[in-house]
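Lab channel / #folding
Pinned by the channel admin:
"Please post every new chain as: sequence first, then the structure tokens as a reply. Keep commentary short and put observations after the output so the thread stays searchable."

First post following the new format, from NK:
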Amino acid sequence: MLARTVIIAAVLSCTQAFFKYPWHASCKVKWEIPEPCQTFKTKIINQMNDWQGDSLCPSTSNSCPQLPCGQKCLYELKETSQNYIYGTHKTPVARYTDDLTFQLTDNGQTGCSVAAKSNSQTWYAVLDYGTNYCNLRNLLDGAGISTAAGFTEETSNSVCTQYSSRDCARF
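Reply from TO:
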């Protein structure tokens, strides 16, 4: 039994060297936000509420002949507490649901450190064209947070599925 466990652990650690993404479609991002956490929280909640429902889901056009053509719709706020936001996002075409979490920590100055995660609820999802990253980043961009002086972001392919090939205009 011990030998089998060691072999499985060795195989899994070796395959991580060849498979550069998380094993499940997901994304973890760390942001430094140059404003108080409560301001960030209000902006993200407002943006989720603004993008509820499917009335804003785009259709095809000359500039985007094949869906998806953007996903700034189908967000839903589920729960909040003092330093936490939980919501979901559904993809417009297949209606797959991703869980979104934001953990907020005052950084002791006038800013906020945010640990955000988007995780596919679909158990077999592995690759996602950067959708889980875009679930988070689209909210930040829509709320005008990412353009503030002093904003920083930290993520990579190892913690964010297909981060380097993302296209948030589509996904």
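NK: The longest strand covers residues 97-106.
TO: also worth noting, Residues 28 and 159 are 6 Å apart (CA to CA).
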